[in-house]
Amino acid sequence: MSQSLPPPRFDDPAVFGRVAVLMGGTSAEREVSLDSGRNVLDALRSRGVDAFAVDGIPALVDAIRDGRVDRVFNILHGNRGGGEDGVLQGLLDALGVPYTGPGVLGSALTMDKIRTKQVWMAEGLPTPRFVRLAPGDDLVAAARSLGLPVFVKPSNEGSSVGVFRILEEADLRAAAEFAAGYRGELLMEQMVRGKEFTVAILGGVALPSIRIEPAGEWYDYHAKYVADDTQYICPGLDGEDESAIRRLALAAFVAAGCSGWGRVDVMRDEALGFQLIEINTAPGMTSHSLVPKAAAQVGVDYASLCWRVLEQTLGDDAGGARG
């Protein structure tokens, strides 16, 4: 794929003013967000940016009221106190404070895996068959209607929180126990048999794909954030296959109303080909995270990546910039 990243637009860190690196919060992904946020903060400071840490949305509002924030690098993850569900974006739009990542529509839509898949289907983009499960719905009946194996996951969580891999009906017991105490909708999705990929999007450019090879049977929370034996091959494909997965990821990102930066997860089914799984609008930036690995493949180191993401808050063409 010939499309490449343009050079950075600015070299003076003073153009950013005071930058709040928003991390932590109260979602289920708090610890991952804190890890990402510390890394981003150190990277921006290493480039001379006047950046400071803010833990959670209420503290950010206080800092804005005090006149201490010119723009926000959002590295909150998740919803209900996270920063990926459109609530934060609407708040910052109303206050006229620029921020990184997609705006209200893209953030709210992609936080909901079910509605994202419905949009993709309407656009003719490939995604696995699924069933929407409201609280109290029969998981066994749903699994039988789809056919095993399936995954069961919350529609509005990330980082593999509450994900269950169902190979036989007996495996549904743990998922049913989780569902009994979970108030939101669940997504039951046909399991894709094939390789797992992710494609980072940065400023309208799809970066090289990454093929994920976990040591275990699947890419769960442990493989993502704890294990050191997960392999990441970048680029994940060659030739036209690599071009095709990048085109698909960018199309999926745009169809979901997203701009700026993010990450699109894709699997390659042995029979059906590429299948879209989900979008992350505030991707992890930990030592195990994938966007920095893809950026490095095109010569962009971690600090430069953070700079480029922050640049998107400057100018009318910036993804997620509303100020």
The CATH topology assignment of the largest domain is D-amino Acid Aminotransferase, Chain A, domain 1
Going by CATH, the architecture of the largest domain would be 2-Layer Sandwich
Give the amount of beta strand, in percent.
15-25%
What is the helix tally?
11
CA radius of gyration: 19 Å
Calculate the terminal CA-CA distance, rounded to whole Å: 33 Å
- What kind of assembly state do the chains in view correspond to? single chain
Helix content estimate: 25-40%
How are helices and strands ordered from N to C? Answer: EHEHEHHHEHEEHEEEEHEHEEHH
Number of domains: 3
Q: Give the overall shape, derived from the CA principal axes.
A: globular
Secondary-structure-derived class: alpha+beta
Low-confidence runs: 317-323
Main beta-sheet annotation: 6 strands, antiparallel
Number of strands: 13
Protein name: D-alanine--D-alanine ligase
Function: Cell wall formation.
EC number: 6.3.2.4
Domain ATP-grasp: 117-311
